[in-house]
Amino acid sequence: MIADAASWRRADESGAKRQAGLIAARVEAAVVTVLAHDFAGGRGWIALFDGAGSRFAFVPGGEVSVGYDAARFTGTPEQQASYAASAGEFGMSLSIQEYIALVTSPARTAVVPPLLVSVTAIEAGLVPVPPDHPEITRLFAGQQRHGPAPRKLEWHRRARVTLDRDWTVTGAWLLDVPSYQQAVARLVEAGQRLLTPDEWEHACGAGATTLFRWGDASPPGIGPWSASAGPHREANAFGLEIGQDPYRAERTADPAVVCGGDGGGMICGGAGWFLSWLTLATAYRDTDLTEYLREHDGQDAALYLRPAITLQPSAPSH
After folding, report:
1. Rounded CA separation 281/246 (Å)
2. Are residues 150 and 114 both part of a single domain?
3. Are 96 and 73 a contacting pair, CB within 8 Å?
4. How far apart are CA 276 and CA 174, in angstroms?
5. Average pLDDT of the segment spanning 75-95
6. Same domain, 286 and 164
7. Within this chain, do residues 228 and 168 fall inside the same structural domain, yes or no?
8. Is 184 helix (H, G, I), strand (E, B) or coil?
9. Is 268 helix (H, G, I), strand (E, B) or coil?
10. Does 184 fall in a domain?
């Protein structure tokens, strides 16, 4: 079985499909598609699978580059100007390179296993239940029904359902606010786990050594949350929808490291568009957010998890 990122990138179509078949058999998943994918000027393979109620993408492992070398950042004139305005407003004396170094993990080499990684992150408090679960039945019984049903209904911090147009419940979830350990335990029970910080950065950046997975530049004049289109809204080189929204910060296997956003802090604080984009940098770290989460464990509903399944490579044949 192909296990490392370099071999996966070099595979031809038949090799990529053969790899997908081996993975599917190993984890009892269904292959959805295997296709060539263009992203950030490069071309690679995406393999998607359905299993355990989620859609997963293959993320090859091996020796990989993660982190970011802030000293190499030059920035566009627009990025430089936006940072200068933010630094002046907040009284920061750091250069743009020094600030980026402060809020990103350093460039390094890591060895990670091959993985299946959920294409989308999930809300930490989302607990799937049968459509006829007593609490769903009780809440749904009091729901006003006029005309075609909406695609989704939600009762704040209590439950969510998806619906057919005739109001048939097609999916149901209870909502709560689990502690970190409770969230991890739920994944383990499902045969899944959280990504380590190294794995998360590799899954997001897919080998890119730039600030963002698509390069060093960021769309000027608008923040990532307001930008409905842009490189952050595209599936990355492995087919993952990741690092798309600063509000959707993701837990990792290290409780002190959250990736993929800052919970919206920069945007809510009016920090300027470049600093807002910086929260989507592949190697971004927010120590203030992790300290808040440590102090409010089991109280914050706006956390996301990205389930992963470890794939052990096959022993070589002789």
Report:
1. 10
2. no
3. yes
4. 32
5. 96
6. no
7. no
8. helix
9. helix
10. no
Task: For residues 147 and 160, give the distance between their C-alpha atoms in angstroms, rounded to a whole number.
Answer: 19
Which residues are registered as beta bridge partners of 155?
159
- Cα end-to-end distance, the chain, whole Å: 14
Which residues sit opposite 215 in a β-bridge? 212
Residues 80 and 195 in one domain: yes
Round to whole Å and give the CA distance between 51 and 175: 22
Q: For 48-58, what is each residue's pLDDT tens digit?
A: 999 877 899 99
Do 206 and 95 fall within a single domain?
yes
Query: Do 133 and 116 belong to one domain?
Result: no
Percent of the chain with pLDDT over 90: 69
Distance CA 216, CA 21 (A): 36
Asked if residue 204 and residue 157 are part of one domain, the reply reads no
Encode pLDDT of 191-241 as tens digits.
999 999 999 999 999 999 999 999 999 999 999 999 989 999 999 999 999
Number of domains making up the chain: 2
The residue segments making up the domain with residue 132 are: 126-175
Exposed, middle or buried, 4 (CB in 10 Å: 0-12/13-18/19+)? Answer: middle
Q: Where would I find the beta strands (DSSP E) of 138-282? A: 152-155, 159-163, 169-175, 250-251, 258-259
Do residues 80 and 163 both lie within one domain? no
Residue 315 scores a pLDDT above 60: no
Q: How far apart are CA 60 and CA 33, in angstroms?
A: 16
Look up the pTM and report it.
Answer: 0.89
Residue 25: CB partners within 8 Å, gap ≥ 6?
Answer: none
> Residue 26, class by beta-carbon neighbours within 10 Å (0-12 exposed, 13-18 middle, 19+ buried)?
middle
Supply the pLDDT for residue 314: 46
Phi first, then psi: give them for residue 284, nearest 5 degrees: -65, 140
